[in-house]
Amino acid sequence: MNRWQKIAWFNLIVIVAGSVISVIAAGTLPPEERLMPPNRITVVIIISLVLVAMAKIIFRKADKGVDFDERDRQIQRRAKLFGWTGFGLGMAATIMVCYIAAGPKGSFPPLVLPIIPLVGAAIYTITESAAALIQYGWAGKGEKS
Amino acid sequence: MSKLQKLAWFNLVMMTICFILSILFLLILIRVNAKGIEYLITCFVIACITTPLFFMLHRKKSFEAGFDEREKMINRRAFSCSVIGLTVFLACVCFIPFFVLGGQNVVKVYYLPLIFLGAIFAAQFVHSATILIQCALEEEDG
Fold it and tell me: Given CB atoms, is A114 within the 8 Å cutoff of chain B?
């Protein structure tokens, strides 16, 4: 398993675990406190984002040798394209859910606005990581770093 | 003018026309208090099915197939710039209102489709503009 597969697995696990914990945390909070930060959902989201941002530091580049060849670059390019497609669809779905929930003449708290790109970013990370892992073959085929 | 430049001009003009028309229609729909969320869901489902199908059918004739190595590089750089543009745009339209209005205020729901349309337009605008700027700079250099 090479460095990019490790990063993809790490991001996938962090985002999926973060999303599941956020949903559980939202379920345990009273409805009126769900959109009132700071609460436990905010803490889970911040920890997940920090971990994803630190993935490249946690899985450092090898001191010697090449750990990113032309094939890896091609895989990464394709994975990013899938990621951005997922991001667009995720954003559209989130906006539609908010629109349906509020109704055509409705209104919503401003806290929903930062949540939209955060949901998009989560979907981007999941799609990109899954696309990279599918291309590598989930467990093997990538050169060792 | 190369194929990539023609494509960039076409996208720029078409996206601007579509954006202006979308805003106009959205304003009309808000004015008449239009309802019919089922049409919106139908369009979304159709888009979710047709987009992957379109990519699968045109897999052999990829977007970059008709371009040379220099144009492919320009297109890749433009894509990176459009992604940065999209991120900056979303950060501005989603985070600034939250900090300006505060947690206790409310935002009208028609702001949401405007965000989505604006994001698509911003990304396409930056993509096309970057292609045209890069081509112009390369032509200047000879």
Answer: yes
